[in-house]
Amino acid sequence: MKLSSKTKYGLKACHFLGLNYPDNPVSASTLENYISVSGKYLEKIMRMLSTRGIVTASRGASGGYFLARPPKEITVGEIVRALEDDIELVECVKEDGKCKCCPTSRVWKKLHEGINSLLDDMNLEQVIKGEIR
Questions:
Q1: CATH hierarchy code of domain 5-129
Q2: pTM score, two decimals?
Q3: CA–CA separation, 117 and 101 (whole Å)
Q4: How many other C-beta atoms can be found within 10 angstroms of the C-beta atom of residue 67?
């Protein structure tokens, strides 16, 4: 399984927003430069994160992007799932997955649960503080 670049850049953007939380909204241009992406790509990433309630934006002279919640309340899993279409490895791991009788479905379900559990055990504050080992 390979995660998309959206996830790499999205987590990096959230990290930077967390460093500036809660007092300093980050301008789009500052964020573009920090994570080294185009404005259009950044906008797509931030829209996906915004839809899931992870980031928000304000317009105006003192506007910009900022985290919607404290970094401690945002898990790495939330960020990854927002950008990776819920990390569905195979069809049968979905809640409504039809493949319950396949002899390998338990393997995929266990892998899916393990990945999500690991990602949900890490929050953005731990990433910011360098506490992920």
A1: 1.10.10.10
A2: 0.88
A3: 24
A4: 21
